[in-house]
Write a structure and sequence with these properties.
Elements lengths: L8 H9 L4 H4 L3 E5 L5 E8 L3 E7 L2 E7 L8 E7 L3 E2 L3 H8 L11 E13 L2 E10 L2 E16 L5 E12 L18 E15 L3
Antiparallel strand pairs: 1-4, 1-11, 2-3, 2-11, 3-6, 4-5, 5-7, 7-8, 8-9, 9-10, 10-11
Length: 203
């Protein structure tokens, strides 16, 4: 089942001429991301030899899905930087400080989608603007659509999981320390991970 289409003139013509999948059309609507059943996290190389993983416990967002015209679908996410959690309090405090995110001055990290493309089957690429601190740059997120379900409370849900890679220095996150053996304490490349469950809003 396709959920998003490439946002260009050619796909717009195809969308207009091809019959709409009834199952796809049924997904049309506005959804609110359920933070209790979603996860936004990251993985970064530490001291050149191992990975440190963390999550942002507090986030909110919304999806607007258009089954008849998938390219019109959109996504927005806001993440509270102060909710960063790597399992080590001192490290989390350092990440919140001015050396890294400066959470007091820049409390949110945000993503606003601008276009989407279907890569094949249930795989998609969502492109948008990622803002960290006072820097906004484009980001593409590769996603897999995990399907739909109605939970025990009658909520209609959709699910996605995906990832993206960024160079943190491009968003002004440049703190580092050199190692005696060569290399640096924290890699520039960071992998972002998304597991999203969203509930369809009441009509």
């Amino acid at each position: 089942m396709g959920l998003f289409g490439r946002k260009n003139t050619e796909s717009a013509v195809a969308t207009a001429t091809l019959p709409v999948d009834p199952a796809l059309a049924a997904l049309t609507g506005d959804y609110t991301i359920d933070p209790a059943h979603s996860s936004i996290g990251f993985t970064v190389r530490h001291a050149m030899v191992t990975n440190v993983r963390g999550t942002f416990a507090e986030h909110e967002g919304a999806l607007s899905l258009d089954g008849a015209n998938p390219a019109a679908s959109t996504a927005v996410i806001d993440v509270k930087i102060a909710s960063i959690d790597t399992g080590i309090g001192d490290r989390d405090g350092h990440l919140r400080s001015g050396d890294f995110f400066d959470a007091e001055q820049f409390p949110l990290m945000s993503f606003r989608s601008t276009e989407a493309a279907q890569l094949g089957g249930d795989k998609f690429r969502i492109t948008g603007d990622l803002t960290i601190k006072d820097v906004t740059k484009p980001l593409s997120i590769d996603l897999e659509f995990n399907g739909t379900a109605t939970d025990v409370y009658g909520n209609e849900r959709v699910g996605f999981e995906g990832s993206a890679e960024i160079l943190r220095s491009e968003w002004g996150l440049t703190w580092n320390a050199a190692l005696e053996t060569g290399g640096v304490m924290v890699s520039d490349k960071v992998k972002l991970n998304f597991d999203i469950s969203a509930i369809k809003n009441a009509a």
